[in-house]
Input
Amino acid sequence: MVNLLTSKINDDYYLLNDLYLRNGGGDIDHIVLGPNGVFVLETKNWSGSISCNGDDWQRGGKRNFSGSPSRQVKRNAAKIKQIIDNNSNLRMLGIWVEGIVVLLIAMPHCM
Output
């Protein structure tokens, strides 16, 4: 994923990988910083049957197999937004933060 991202984004963007947020904040796979915002990426290298309905995911017919990646990325994006908003200099810039789930192999069926 890192090689793909670095080969596709131009010099206006900066890629951060494998971040750990202190105080029980968890880990973040990737963050892309750019002129149009901050993108928090949760990557999954899954195979087999995958489906999702909103934040409810199924893998191989099993629900809640290892948590919801969409819920995870929403939490992580909210934490990054909070870090930005806690800094008055950054808050006044109105930086957009978006969470994105990236499935590397599977072809998901989302509703």
Notes: The longest strand covers residues 26-34. Strands lie at 14-21, 26-34, 37-44, 50-53, 56-59, 62-63, 97-103, 109-110. The CA atoms of residues 55 and 70 lie 6 Å apart. The mean pLDDT is 86.
